[in-house]
Each structure stands twice: as C-alpha cells, then as structure tokens.
C-alpha cells in the first residue's frame, strides 16, 4: 500500500531500479520486545528528526532506509484485553484498521512462550496479511534444541510467510529479519529522505519519551489510564524548554507517580531529559508535574484532545 498522492523525491531510487518501499507494523502482546526491536532496526539513526508535517495516513514511528529498500514502521497502539472502556475500544479499532492496510506485519513473540494473549493478537491480523513470525529473546532460551519444536508448535496457528528467531536486545540475527522482509515489500519509490527516521514532531517525541519513562519506572505501579500532555514547547537556539503534565485518573494515583519525597518523578524527568538531549542534540529543560483529570480514560473527547483517534 503506497500513498499514490505522494510525489516521489528527487535523486532517489525509483521502483524501476527494483527499489522496494512499504509500511510495516510490529505487533505483539506487551513486553515481547517490540520497542527494543524497532530501536534496534533503526539503530543509531535516531539523530535527525524531520520537521515535516504528517505525510501519510499512518502514525510513523520509525524509518529504515537500506540501499535497496525503505521500511516505514507504523504505530499500532498497545493491545489491551483486560480493561473495557472507551480507550481500549478506540485502540483495538485502530489496530485492526492499521493491520488491514500495511504491506507487511512483524508478529513478535518470546522464544519458548506462546500464550493465550499471543493468540489473541494473532487473531486480529487479517488472513490476507503477509506475516513474518519474529521469535525474540532467543538469548533467554537456555536449551537451544527447544527452538525447532517451538517453531513447529507456533506454525500450527498460522501459515507464516517467514520465520526469524532473533535477539533484539543483543542485536543478534536482526539483519536476517531485514533480509527476509525486503522481498516482501512492494516495488516502489521511497516515501522519505534517507536520513529521516520519523515524521513525528519534536513535541510528540518529547511526550513519547516521557511516557516511556513513566511505563518503565512505575512498572506494576503504573496507574491505568495515565497520559502525558505537553503544555508548552519553546525553542531558544540550541535549548528546548518543555513543560509537561502527567495526567492521572484519580487523586490517589498522583502520589504513586510523584513517589516519596518526589523521588520517582524526579528520576522519571531526569532520565527523559537525558534521552531527549541526545535525540535533539542540544540542551533540554524539562519541567514535569502531575494533574488529576477524573474519568478521562472514559471520555472520548478527552482522548481526541490527547491524540487518540
Ligand atoms: N533477554 C532479552 N530481553 C529482551 C529482548 N528484547 C527485549 N527485551 C526486554 O523485554 C522487555 C520488554 O521490551 P519492550 O521492547 O519494552 O517490549 P514491548 O513489546 O515494546 O512492550 P509494550 O510497550 O509493553 O508493548 C524489556 O525489559 C527489554 O529489555 C531480547 O532480545 N532479549
């Protein structure tokens, strides 16, 4: 599926050279390593952020341009099966729409574990999709002879186009995934310049980085329905001043995010700031506070204002 309205970029290879370009969705239940895989795939190229406005109908999370192909990775919001409310309904709807529309799907699971939740995710991928089964975390598999019978077990669930075992964290066999995926993309012109890694705005990336830190550092204590809103984003030369609010659903959740003596929130914002400085290649001043907006997760309008469709 290539966007026909897009003008081909000059000096770029065209479909006539056999160049391939397409949209790829990385899906899987929480914690299988999707983000680690995406970061590994686009690797060190996270340095230049395009200021171009949204150019495709998908939310692009990363772009990998190889000599013969361009992979445009698109977002599929987290797969939720446990809570039923407006937020999850909206998310699951988006997942199915995105999957019906991309050129290729990476379905990620953990080596040695094929759970009910994995099956639920697999069930949402349309039958017509081309799917590569990515078996991640092979480094955790102590007994390597278990891999083949495990593959045989998972294959019973679906006829995968390709199967690639790898370790996203250790960077093992990730090249093989790119090699296997390239011929599965349609022939076409690149949609982005070679050095672009994302078409999201700096403001959006700041909120994503902060959200990621909240998820990581709050772990099991993460309140359901938490969100990040960037209230102000100012650029002064090489300094970015970012004012962000963490939005929670209940007053009791506020103290969970702040932590004793403010320690938790301090750590979250300082880790996010360090990573944003690397990303933007400049100084970042980041101020974060916590706000309570009761029942926001059930309010469709609030969802829209926070960027969910
Ligand atoms: N041992 C090992 N751990 C990994 C590997 N890839 C990812 N992990 C770890 O698995 C955990 C989850 O990784 P993420 O990349 O956040 O997983 P995700 O699928 O994006 O998770 P959600 O955002 O919750 O959907 C992290 O602690 C990673 O460090 C791997 O190849 N080997």
Automatic annotation (TrEMBL):
The UniProt entry lists membrane topology as:
Peripheral membrane protein
Q: How does it assemble?
A: Monomer.
Q: Which gene encodes it?
A: era
| Region feature (G2) | 54-58
Stretch list, region G1:
28-35
Role summary: An essential GTPase that binds both GDP and GTP, with rapid nucleotide exchange. Plays a role in 16S rRNA processing and 30S ribosomal subunit biogenesis and possibly also in cell cycle regulation and energy metabolism.
Protein name per UniProt = GTPase Era
As for family, the record states: Belongs to the TRAFAC class TrmE-Era-EngA-EngB-Septin-like GTPase superfamily. Era GTPase family.
Q: Could you tell me which InterPro entries the record lists for this protein? A: G_ERA_dom, GTP-bd, GTPase_Era-like, KH_dom-like_a/b, KH_dom_type_2, KH_sf_prok-type, P-loop_NTPase, Small_GTP-bd
Cite the binding residues for GTP. Answer: 28-35, 75-79, 136-139
Main location (coarse class): cytoplasm
Q: Which SUPFAM superfamilies match?
A: P-loop containing nucleoside triphosphate hydrolases, Prokaryotic type KH domain (KH-domain type II)
Question: Where in the numbering of this chain does the Era-type G domain appear?
Answer: 20-187
Q: Which residues form the KH type-2 domain?
A: 218-294
Identify one Pfam family in the record.
KH_2
In Gene Ontology terms, what is a biological process of this protein?
ribosomal small subunit assembly
* Region feature G4, mapped onto this chain: 136-139
Annotated region described as G5, given as residue ranges: 166-168
